Amino acid sequence: MRRVMVVANQTLGGDELAKAIRDRVAGGPCEFWVVVPATPRPELAPRLPPMPVMGGVPTLQMEPAEARRLAQDRLRSALGQLTGAGATADGEVGDPNPMRAVEAALKGRQFDEIIVSTLPARVSHWLHQDLPQRLQHKFHLPVTHVAATE
């Protein structure tokens, strides 16, 4: 049985990731472990109109507890979708840093592949950090990158 780690946050439940998972399931028995880094990014915070402060625009930063709650909600929903589609799946909310989240998830577990699901390249912090390549280099596992289109 193939063991696949899925690393995603905002793109969990997206069409592109769902297709990648369906492709794996069609290839034979698979188990999925979903890792959702609890990333408190400004783009995850509620949208408020910008308010100039001393000539600048403040950045709204989400509290870590709120980021963790959102990640837990996304994980619960994704696991429901996966098991509802007949896949064997479990997972965890991880460290806000996706590299540390993956490293923690690998402790005591083995995987055949890591799927990293990101926002489109123009807005993805993970791609700007070269996350897929860094994961492959550090953990010596095949890494498949799936980018959301919207």
Structural features, described:
- The chain is of the alpha/beta class and 150 residues long.
- The protein has one domain: HUPs (Rossmann fold, 3-Layer(aba) Sandwich).
- The chain contains 5 helices and 5 strands, in the order βαβαβαβααβ.
- Helix 3 (98-106) packs parallel to helix 5.
- The radius of gyration is 16 Å and the shape is globular.
Features:
single chain; alpha/beta; Rossmann fold; 21% strand
Instruction: Output the CATH class name.
Output: Alpha Beta
Class computed from helices, strands and strand pairing = alpha/beta
Report the order of strands and helices. EHEHEHEHHE
The termini sit apart by 32 Å
Please write out the topology.
Layout: E1 2-7, H1 15-26, E2 30-37, H2 64-84, E3 88-94, H3 98-106, E4 113-118, H4 125-128, H5 131-139, E5 143-147
Parallel strand pairs: 1-2, 1-4, 2-3, 4-5
Helix pairs in contact: 3-5
Brief overview, please?
The protein has 150 residues and is α/β, with parallel strands linked by helices.
